[in-house]
Design goal:
It contains eleven helices and no strands. With 215 residues, it is an all-alpha fold. The mean pLDDT is 96. It binds iron/sulfur cluster (SF4).
Length: 215
């Protein structure tokens, strides 16, 4: 298959997914860039639903970067306990608050380099924050769902999220980056589960090389 044929196929798939899922998600809830960064950091190894339960309370108390910088480690651990990996996450949130206060005047930076200076923020998280909070498509975010589905769909054979992000980024226009991430997550949760994908109900079955082949 030529690159052009592949581009046509992946874009057709995204078109179908957009039609199949009028609503995507659920994703982490936020109302400002700081909340998005915190929610996305907490969502590592945790469901977005669980994060949202925790952040509904957390965001009432922690309203600024300084609030996180000044947070007590033990108290914050208790507050985010149910999201898992709470010690590390609490440490990272406090560190993030400090870096935001000391280097960015308390504001979430609008650049990839700036975001990557925050403890616990990966490329994936940074791409999501840039796209959602600032409308900047710097890269295609590859999370566990994207990393699992893209090979099944024949979109990528990359062995690392970073490489896959580059490969998928070449197949889609930048304006589609966020949708690719969100629709694959939604499709992965709804139909294309890890062990028993419902290929019989899948809108991509006729263009998916794995259709009916996953036992
Ligand atoms: S056809 Fe099956 S394996 Fe392919 S995307 Fe759909 S559910 Fe997943």
């Amino acid at each position: 298959m030529t690159l052009e044929e592949k581009k046509k196929r992946v874009r057709e798939a995204l078109k179908r997914l957009r039609k199949a899922y009028p609503v995507t998600g659920p994703f982490v809830e936020w109302s400002n860039p700081l909340e998005l960064v915190v929610g996305t950091a907490l969502s590592a190894q945790c469901t977005d639903e669980r994060v949202n339960i925790v952040t509904r309370e957390l965001f009432k108390k922690y309203r600024s970067a300084k609030d996180y910088a000044d947070a007590d480690q033990g108290v914050l651990e208790k507050e985010i306990y149910s999201t898992g990996f709470y010690r590390n996450k609490a440490k990272n949130l406090r560190g993030m608050g400090r870096v935001l206060v000391e280097e960015f005047g308390g504001k979430v930076p609008e650049t990839l380099d700036g975001l990557l200076k925050l403890p616990g923020i990966s490329n994936k998280t940074a791409y999501i924050v840039l796209a959602k909070a600032f409308g900047k498509m710097e890269g295609l975010a590859v999370d566990t769902h994207v990393f699992r589905l893209a090979p099944r769909l024949g979109w990528s054979t990359a062995k690392t999220p970073e490489r896959m992000s580059r490969e998928l980024g070449e197949l889609f226009p930048k304006g589609d980056y966020l949708d690719v991430n969100e629709y694959l997550i939604t499709h992965g949760r709804a139909v294309c589960s890890p062990r028993s994908p419902k290929c019989g109900e899948c809108v991509l079955a006729d263009i998916c090389p794995s259709a009916g082949k996953i036992l």
